[in-house]
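Hi P.,

Sorry for the delay on this. The queue was packed all week, but I finally got your sequence through. Input first:
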Amino acid sequence: MTASSASPSTPSSSITPSTPPGSTQHARRAHSFNAAAAQYAANRPSYPPALFDAVEVLAARSLAGAKVVDVGAGTGISTGLLHARGAEVLAVEPGPGMAAEFRRVHSGIPIVRGSGDALPLATASADFLTYAQSWHWTDPSRSVPEALRVLRPGGALALWWNTEALDVPWIEAAARRAERFLGWDPVVEKNGSGARAARFLSLDPSGSLSFEHRQVRWSRSIPVDTRLANIGSHSPFLVLGEEATGAFFAEERNRLLQAFPEGFVEETYVVELLVALRS
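Then the structure:
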């Protein structure tokens, strides 16, 4: 595994664009993870140490010893890393299946049921609120006031997403095949574009927060089957089910093995990090 800063011109994309909070499709996708929690935990990518270095720089304080609430913690991929950095971390997770998998893997880390739209936490009780791959499941009209309520003065709200590095040809081609299968219009946003800036602004429609933006590029070498299980753990595929997606994944496996006959691929990611400080 390697980690380095991303080039400002590196295009990147998420496999799962957001759907409007409160919509039926949004709810179906949000709940889809509960039945696939073990698959999610085993195959989703982690995060590089440089990401947490960047969080500390932007927050102007160490994670070690800080009271950190990891919201939408899922199976605990980010929570475990925050704990390893020395944070006093509490996980918040709405899904019963994801929470059960979290408890199985991270039995020593406390977790409570709840969501970013209604945090089960005392006012001014956290130094950091972190959202790894999860802010887009919230309603910012509710989650922003909740973040401001729960954070202590000077506390930091940190949001991040692993996005695929579309400047890598095979990743770009695979992303386009997935988009065609799912019926999406292909959109490649370049860093610093008006579309990307608009997306960041939509994370806080109230304008209460001022985000600093960083990127961290990293990669991991994994078996082809892990790659397929990773993609299959994303909600657009989960809601379709195995029967509807079986042929796509069989063809995708054949394509990847033709391109990588040794059976391993190097997935490259750009972590999009946003940090806002509470005044």
